[in-house]
Write a structure and sequence with these properties.
157 residues; alpha+beta; Potassium Channel Kv1.1, Chain A; three-stranded mixed β-sheet; flat
C-alpha cells in the first residue's frame, strides 16, 4: 500500500532564516564581501554575505557572478553616489524584509532600489508612495468638500 505524500511547510522558517542571517551580518560572522559606499566625502564599509546580496539584488548578482577568483575568500564592492544611511537601510531591508525610514527618504530608497535592481524594495517603495499619495488626495478631497459646504451654508439666507 502506497502512502499519500504530505507537505511539510514552515511558516516561520523564512523569517527565522532572515533573522539569523541579519545576526550573522551584524556580528561580522561568515561575511564574504565588504561593500564600501561613498557620497560627498562620507564613506563607510558594510560587511555582508554575497549570497544574500545576490539573491535580493540583480546588480550584486551580476557583479558576483562575473567576478574573477581573487587571492582571498573576501572581496570588495565600491559604490559611489550612494548615501551611507540609504545603503544601511537597504541592507536592513534585504536582511529583514523591513526597514523604517523617514517619509522624505522614500524616494531615495526607491532610487537605490532601482540602482541596485532590488525588485522587492522597489515594489515596497512604490506601494508606500501610492498610499501616501492616496492619503494626500483624500485630505484634499475632504478639505474641498468642507469648503464647498461652508460656501453653500454661507450663501443660504
Amino acid at each position: 500500500m502506497e502512502s499519500t505524500p504530505v507537505l511539510l511547510e514552515s511558516k516561520s522558517s523564512p523569517i527565522n532564516l532572515l533573522n539569523e542571517m541579519q545576526q550573522l551580518r551584524l556580528l561580522g560572522h561568515l561575511c564574504d564581501v565588504t561593500v564600501s559606499v561613498e557620497y560627498q566625502g562620507v564613506r563607510a564599509e558594510f560587511p555582508a554575505h554575497k549570497a544574500v546580496l545576490a539573491a535580493t539584488s540583480k546588480f550584486f548578482k551580476e557583479v558576483f557572478l562575473n567576478e574573477k577568483p581573487v587571492d582571498g575568500p573576501r572581496s570588495s564592492v565600491f559604490l559611489n553616489e550612494v548615501q551611507v544611511a540609504d545603503f544601511a537601510s537597504f541592507l536592513e531591508f534585504v536582511y529583514t524584509a523591513r526597514v523604517e525610514v523617514e517619509e522624505d527618504r522614500v524616494q531615495r530608497m526607491l532610487e537605490i532600489a532601482e540602482k541596485l535592481k532590488c525588485l522587492d524594495l522597489s515594489e515596497t517603495c512604490f506601494q508606500l508612495k501610492r498610499q501616501m499619495l492616496e492619503s494626500v488626495l483624500l485630505e484634499l478631497q475632504s478639505f474641498s468638500e468642507s469648503q464647498n459646504s461652508e460656501e453653500e451654508s454661507g450663501a443660504a439666507p
